[in-house]
Amino acid sequence: MSSWEDEDSAAASAAATTDVELLKRAWRNEKAAPEILHFDSALVSRAREQIQLLEETLDDFTDNGVDDLVVSLYQMDLDRTLFLLRSYLRLRLQKIEKYMFHIANSEDLLSRLSQQEQRFAKSCKEIMEKHLEQSVLSKLPYGYDSVTRQSLSSTEDDMVPEPQLDTFVFCKTKSDVGAFQLDDVGEEVVDLVADDLYVLRYKSIKGLVEAGRIDLI
Amino acid sequence: SDVFDQVIRECGEHNAQFQALIRKMVEQNLDIETTRNEDHYGAAIHHLSLLRNKRCLMAYMYNRAETIRSFRWKIGPVLPHEIQEKLNFSEKEYFRSHSSAIKSYISEMDIDLTVVCIFPVSFIFWG
């Protein structure tokens, strides 16, 4: 029995940094964050390798007639990993579609996408521009026919939908951060201790999420 | 699309009025930027109405485009006839081009994302 416990705790500590855990963490963060986060291409390619490995193992098992329970366990693992990966990519695509102009016009945001996502974002934007121009803008008088500006007198792109960075998110700190200033005014200071649950505005903790010290739930 | 054309025509009229008023002010040798007579305000109203019409039209088309995109993800690359009837020509083209953009992404990534994602129950037990 004690050897089981040892294995359990060893497995638990190993699980903290396995690819599945990392993928799950990335998926949770992406789901909760209002803007698109950085694409972890190394993680995604490792996840795909794992999926392939699992599929091959499963094929081997069914060929060799291995016990059904073991097969179903591996199948469950495969399903979970596939779901995580698919959902992660799908969430990102949805954000790209929603904020296509905002993302395509910002170098910083474009750099957060994978190569394929960048191509997708660019073609999304072009398709939308063409569609809007064809149906609406070509019939409007000169001076009002920009997709991103209301008219020639607008000083900036005022017709671009942007993600709401002020939304509240649930988050959990992974390690001690200490006193943390919540906004520029300097009025609210929050003590962030390890493993605490908070509900905060996304904008305030944006830097911490990117650094990996806070997890969104 | 009748209402649509009406709005477009209204925009054209607003613009015509706007231009006329601006021209009138210029003929009177008034500085467009700073003069504040009744012509200026008339021109401002035309300009702002035009902007509002543009915003409404763009919002209408944009939201329809969002719904069309959701069709691609939910239904697939071919739309049923009832839906196709309700799209205008540009929207059908939008659907086609967007579909192929999605298809090229999927083939580049080699993972089918249009498969319905069922949340695995094992998450509840194993986290």
Number of domains of chain A: 2
Strand content of chain B: under 5%
Q: Give the tally of structural domains of chain B.
A: 1
CATH-scheme architecture of chain B: Up-down Bundle
What is the architecture of the largest domain in chain A at the second tier of CATH? Up-down Bundle
SS-based structural class of chain A?
mainly alpha
Report on the structure:
The complex is a heterodimer of chains A (217) and B (127). Chain A has 217 residues and is mainly α. Chain A has two domains: 18-161, Methane Monooxygenase Hydroxylase, Chain G, domain 1; 164-216, 3-Layer(aba) Sandwich (Ribosomal Protein L9, domain 1). Chain A contains eight helices and five strands, in the order H-H-H-H-H-H-H-E-E-E-E-H-E. Chain A has helices at residues 2-15, 19-32, 41-64, 68-98, 100-104, 107-110, 115-135, 202-211, and strands spanning 168-173, 178-181, 189-192, 197-201, 214-216. In chain A, the strands form two sheets. A three-stranded antiparallel sheet of chain A has the order 4-1-5. A two-stranded antiparallel ribbon of chain A has the order 2-3. In chain A, a hairpin with a 7-residue loop joins strand 2 (178-181) and strand 3. In chain A, helix 3 (41-64) packs antiparallel against helix 4. Chain A starts with a helix and ends with a strand. Chain B is mainly alpha-helical. Chain B has one domain: Methane Monooxygenase Hydroxylase, Chain G, domain 1 (Up-down Bundle). Chain B is built from five helices and no strands. In chain B, helix 1 (2-27) runs antiparallel to helix 2 and helix 2 crosses helix 4. The longest helix of chain B has 37 residues, at 38-74. The radius of gyration of chain B is 24 Å and the shape is elongated. In chain B, 16% of the residues are buried. The chains are: A mainly alpha (217), B mainly alpha (127). The A-B interface holds A 48, 76, 79-80, 83, 85-87, 89-90, 93, 97-98, 116-117, 119-120, 123-124, 127-128, 130-132, 134-136, 139-141, 144, 150-151, 153, 159 and B 8, 11-12, 15, 47, 50-51, 54-55, 57-58, 61-62, 65-66, 69, 88, 90-91, 93-94, 97-98, 101-102, 104-105, 108-109, 111-113, 115, 117-120, 122-123, 126. Chain B: Pfam families: Sld5. Chain B: One of its GO terms (cellular component) is GINS complex. Chain B: InterPro entries: GINS_A, GINS_bundle-like_dom_sf, GINS_Psf1. Chain B: It is found in: Nucleus. Chain B: Keywords: DNA replication, Nucleus.
